[in-house]
Amino acid sequence: MKQGKLFLIPIVLAENTQEAIPTYIKTIFVDTSIFIVEDLKTARRFIKSIYKEKDIDACTFIALDKHNNYNFDATVLLEIFKGKNIGLMSEAGTPCIADPGNKVVEKAHELDIKVVPLVGPSSIMMALMASGFNGQQFTFNGYLPIDTNERKSKLQQMEAAAKKGITQLFMDTPYRNQKVLEEIIHNCKYDTMLCIACNITAPDEFIKTLPLAEWKKQKPDLHKKPAIFVFGK
User: Fold this and answer.
1) How far apart are CA 125 and CA 201, in angstroms?
2) Based on the structure, what is the number of domains in the chain?
3) Which of the listed residues 75, 101, 117 is the one where a domain comes to its end?
4) Distance (Å, whole) CA 117 – CA 112
5) Residues 207 and 129 grouped into a single domain
6) Where residue 19 sits, what CATH number does that domain have?
7) Per-residue pLDDT reduced to its tens digit, 77-100
8) What is the pTM of this model?
9) Residues 208, 140 share a domain
10) Facing residues of 115 across strands?
């Protein structure tokens, strides 16, 4: 029997932006009815928006356990040895990049299962592309620390690295993004270059690179909006 595959399926970053998803993704849904997902509701809605003919109720959905370090029932991967494909989906963008799901892929490699990453929108890569900063050397730092002093220290560490030519990308939860911008302006030097990439792929997408002295004069509204921040040179 032919062995199935684990497909890493990208989904939209913003609502009603299906045009950002390659058309061949639909063909993956035709032959895949088992999905390991971060959010059941988001996954079901997205599949239906891409492939309306799909019988969602006939599909099997395995949720990553957000309350238990994103664990999952790994026995579902054994279905691949019966010839079935499995799709891994995040809540937004591409799986495993600033997103849970790497444990699924790790287990797949342990079982010698073929892992197939699929092309789709990644807010991190798109922000780097649009920043104008060095794309040869860069670091994605993930979320900022919660502690105020640690946040300040981290911002200044990234600022110093960026001034040496190593582009620094980071993020925070949308409801804290306005505060993050205020902290950056307060704790970093006014000649530091910052790119803010907000609501990527959405109709109100906002991407701009300016020195902090200019950001202080024209602060965008980032409250509850997903954003990637980028320090560069």
Assistant:
1) 12
2) 2
3) 117
4) 15
5) yes
6) 3.40.1010.10
7) 999 999 999 999 998 899 998 888
8) 0.91
9) yes
10) 6
